[in-house]
Specification:
Blueprint lengths: L22 E7 L2 E7 L20 H7 L3 H20 L3 E2 L11 E7 L5 E7 L8 H8 L7 E5 L4 E5 L12 H15 L12 H18 L7 H13 L8 E3 L8 E3 L5 E3 L5 E3 L6 H5 L2 H6 L1 H12 L3 H14 L8 H10 L2
Antiparallel strand pairs: 1-2, 3-4, 4-5, 5-7, 6-7, 8-11, 9-10
């Protein structure tokens, strides 16, 4: 995942801005030029028409969009995109979700013309999430949320709403292990050619380049370059040494699994890459960081057995990510502890 995607370990993430933060954006409606105040979501007074309301932006998304000119430009275009989608799909929109996990997309409850509930999601430019729409089309709601409509050019999705929508993290971690392992085994299918999905090696190469750039740009007193180099070596080696290749979710943890009516649990926010199923164990494990650090080998073996994957490869993937995935804080004690516990 790109830095801000991980929940327990925020590889490279910045802290969210303050609630007083405001960004001025222009919405071109017809021949008029309206200035919209982007305000914190909890202060938004809901209206049914975008052109009538101040559009709020989650503070975590503001932080993510400040990281590049491309994302800043996307943010400038977002009000017009929302207005276009609202009109074309005949939607009534509510206030966007604004939690600590909202960092890569604008997501808001929607009501369709027939009164049915949905969610509107517009993703910012993001290497890892580039093929989310195509992944949802491939999985067809098994076991993901259903894709009701999509605008590929805008990166917009109208999604099935999960009701009641509570996250899997309401259960204890051993129970999460069972649910997530079952969902991952259902997700792991190989798409027929031709398909748009990139190999997992594209993700690890992206991470490697970013890590090398970050460690070169500034000194890190707590940086263990031996661990980093070994992690980078595995980022290159592991994708090439796998025996099975399937479509991965790559970001499945208890925050991305929601209670629903159609099935007990559904997957949201997949970030598909084609590769080693052992990799897909890692995101949930990083989100169980206290257990992973207190009993590392047993924790990995239990989850790997539930997934029916090689626990040795899971350990190597966990080590590689803990040692070499790009981040802002190279002195993160928890990640260093995990990396040292599993160092080859």
């Amino acid at each position: 995942m790109e830095p801000e995607l991980n929940e327990s370990f925020s590889f490279g993430s910045a802290q969210s801005g303050t609630d007083e933060q405001m960004v001025q954006l222009n919405l071109h409606a017809g021949h008029s030029n309206q200035t919209l105040a982007w305000t914190p979501a909890r202060n938004l007074v809901e209206r049914s028409t975008i052109s009538e309301m101040a559009i709020s932006i989650p503070t975590g998304l503001v932080v993510s969009c400040r990281k590049s000119a491309e994302r800043t430009a996307w943010l400038d275009r977002l009000p017009a995109a929302l207005r276009k989608l609202q009109q074309e799909w005949s939607l009534e929109l509510g206030a966007p979700f604004d939690t600590s996990e909202v960092s890569c997309s604008y997501v808001t409850p929607a009501v369709c013309r027939d009164g049915s509930p949905a969610e509107l999601k517009v993703g910012m430019p993001h290497m890892e999430g580039e093929h989310e729409i195509q992944g949802l089309r491939f999985w067809q709601g098994d076991p993901t949320v259903r894709l009701l409509a999509a605008d590929d050019e805008l990166g917009a999705m109208l999604l099935e709403r999960c009701e009641p929508g509570t996250a899997l993290r309401e259960l204890d971690e051993p129970a999460q292990d069972i649910v997530i392992s079952g969902l991952l085994r259902r997700l792991w299918r190989k798409p027929s050619e031709p398909h748009p999905f990139r190999p997992l090696s594209a993700l690890t190469a992206h991470w490697s380049a970013e890590t090398l750039a970050r460690v070169a740009d500034s000194p890190h007193t707590g940086l263990d370059m031996g661990l980093v180099r070994e992690g980078l070596r595995l980022f290159d080696e592991l994708p090439r040494s796998m025996s099975t290749e399937v479509l991965l979710a790559t970001d499945l943890h208890a925050g991305n699994v929601l209670r629903a009516k159609r099935e007990p649990w559904l997957v949201i926010d997949p970030k598909p890459f084609l590769g080693d199923p052992a990799y897909d164990a890692t995101q949930h494990l990083f989100n169980c960081d206290a257990r992973l650090r207190s009993d590392p080998y047993s924790t990995i073996r239990r989850f790997a057995d539930l997934l029916e994957v090689d626990h040795a490869r899971v350990r190597l993937w966990v080590f590689a990510r803990a040692a070499a995935e790009p981040r802002d804080d190279w002195e993160n004690a928890a990640l260093l502890e995990i990396a040292r516990a599993f160092a080859p």
